[in-house]
Model the fold of this input.
Amino acid sequence: MTLAERPKIDLGLTGYDELFMTDAERKENKLPRIHDIPLELIDDFPGHPFQVRMDEDMQQLVDSVKERGVLTPITLRQKEDGRYEIVSGHRRRKACELAGFETIRAEVRDMTRDEAIIYMVESNFQRSQILPSEKAFSYKMRLEAMNRQGKRTDLTSCPVDTKSDSGAQVGKDQGDSRRQVFRYIRLTELIPEILQMVDEGKIAFRPAVELSYLTEVEQRWLHEAMEYADATPSLAQAIKLKAFSQDKTLGPHVIESLLSEEKPNQREKFSFRADRLRRYIPDSVPFNQTEDFVCKALEHYQQFLERQRRDRGDR
Done:
């Protein structure tokens, strides 16, 4: 299939020509009018799964807004109380706020909540970088919206057993199979601390899916054990943890024992009790910089030993 033959995806996003139409032209073409909406009247979309990161890209967006304003209006949905919620444009709204603007160009669309969810997910999937947690919750929100619209879904079943094709439909644009979509949805069962480790790349995707079957209490035991041992489970270990959980035999000691197993090609690790190290470290050094301080101290000690060897050689 050539590029020209590929079906086009209509996300309902504002076209280039539409941006510069007058209100009369927009009314004639039955398009939403562009409004200047006060930022103080705009709320976030409930349960919005995509993060607004204060990074270099955001700073570039703020600089662009200061120089040229918001070129692409954000999309809003009016609420019953007269306020608005963002359907698409959380980053642009934040950029306007940081730029010191009081209003933002927006088009207000008449949408049901489920229509707004689907629009919100599809428009945000155009981002260049999407975290696993963002994809997980957005897939779940869209499938639930489709379910309420009458399309068959089953969010509780294993992806292998589901008979619905909605998962395949949701993941199609992202290149994810139905099975992969339901794997992502499993991540929503992780406690926030472990899900953050997945986003940070500390826990791989497939082990994380297996860990999602642990109860909340078991996951908190696991998180505590991972912090203490400075280790994360491999896929094989995660599968074992899930099996122990299903057998109702998973406890802190079992978790610690599994995490202490040597993995293939695993490098030997050392661990120290923090209270033994902190007595030698100034209070001005933050706790999370303990390792850096110790490494720097060891470097200086190594240099001291080398000077001693040189001095002995000179005699």
